[in-house]
Write a structure and sequence with these properties.
With 231 residues, the chain is α+β, with helices and mostly antiparallel strands. The chain is 30% helix and 35% strand. It has two helices and eleven strands. The strands form three sheets. A five-stranded antiparallel beta sheet has the order 3-4-5-9-8, with no helix packed on it.
């Protein structure tokens, strides 16, 4: 027999002599009698995503093609790299600084103190032998006042400051901390109230004990001691 026709504006066509089937597109008639195919909703969404992806790719290529933007991007990346490097170096230095500071402090504490320049030593020693005209003062000068060779001057004075010419004056040095001495000093008389020695050897540093004996008569004498620092 003859096949059936679909109704005008229908959504499908019936195959002659067989079961009906549905196409993937809908057809609508335009005013001119032409049929316009409308995609399914899923297909339309896929096409929209493809168009968006193409537009994004075009924009990216345009940005990369811009030399100013490309240079700016490279500059930003370079600055970021430098900042990371500086941060790493600062972290290392910060972690090692306390150790360096401690080492410097320990080295400073262990370093020997700088020796101060030696200064001449002057000692003022009042004395009184107990006899007639036995009171006075002795001025002892030690120059340069350090280990090795020194010159010694001894001057005796009456209370009024005039020279006191004693019959005998003796001087010696002892270093108790080292059980050294006494080391006698040969000090010949230079003039009234003045005795001197030019080669007094003090071999070690430390606090020396200066011992001065003054005799003003055959039986009147006194010994006075003072500590002197020899550097």
């Amino acid at each position: 027999g003859s096949g059936g026709k679909g109704s005008p504006g229908g959504t499908g066509a019936v195959s002659p002599g067989g079961p009906s089937s549905t196409r993937n597109t809908d057809s609508t008639s335009s005013g001119t009698g032409e049929t316009v195919t409308v995609p399914e909703p899923g297909r339309a969404a896929q096409l929209a995503r493809q168009r968006a992806a193409l537009a994004t790719a075009r924009e990216k290529r345009a940005r990369e093609a811009d030399p100013e933007r490309s240079g700016l991007r490279r500059s930003v990346l370079a600055e970021a790299g430098v900042a990371v490097l500086l941060l790493a170096v600062t972290t290392v230095l910060t972690s090692t600084e306390p150790a360096r500071t401690a080492d410097a402090a320990r080295a400073s504490a262990e370093a020997p103190a700088a020796a101060s320049p030696a200064q001449p030593v002057s000692v003022d020693i009042p004395f009184d032998t107990g006899g007639k005209d036995g009171a006075g003062r002795a001025l002892v000068d030690l120059d340069p006042g350090r280990t090795g060779r020194n010159a010694v001057h001894i001057r005796l004075e009456h209370p009024d400051g005039t020279p006191l010419d004693a019959p005998e004056v003796k001087l010696s040095f002892t270093l108790p901390a080292k059980n050294l001495g006494p080391l006698p000093v040969e000090s010949p008389r230079i003039d009234a109230g003045h005795w001197s020695a030019t080669d007094v050897q003090l071999p070690m540093t430390g606090t020396w004990e200066l011992s001065l004996t003054v005799r003003t008569s055959d039986i009147d004498q006194v010994t006075e001691t003072r500590n002197v620092k020899i550097g």
